[in-house]
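Deliverable D4.2, example record:
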Amino acid sequence: LVVNNPLTLPDGSSEALSVSNLVLNTFSGNPDDAQFILTALPQHGDLLLNGAALGVGDVFTQADILAGAVVYANNGDGNTADNFLFDAVDTGTGSWLHAQVFDIIILQNDLAVTAEVTQPLLCRDGATAKIPVQVAGGTPPLVFSLNGGTGQFLNVFGNLSAGMYTVVVTDDYGFTAEANVVVDNPPALNL
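Output generated by the structure prediction step:
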């Protein structure tokens, strides 16, 4: 077993295992000879092969991993970790590794967003307001959008007129958080 690195994915999502997660080299070099036999299933999701759920005793190969056919589908129950147990076999030589553990890290949405008007409108019906956005948590890069508009990497929105604004921040894993901000229209000057 050359590689056994955890799979990381957002809560409630699915992700294919890749060669950055699991590699068993075989004497022949044939990825079909590298077999993984499931001995215990994940508790917070399903392990799928070509879309069908696998059970204890079922087998997938290194070729299946190379093809992106082995997928872990998390059930979204809020747990932060899962795993499955397997035996690794080189069918060409009969070499066997027993009771291996494959770990799964399940990310939760920890994004928190605040936004406030730091530069109010200078005159009635103007467009001079500015809203900076502060973010805690999340995985960069972060994308900021205002009222469903095109996303940007800059966390400041400027040249805004009076109105209600919704700021949505999206992180690299697709988690989102939002904040609502009101830009008040100042009273008209009476001369």
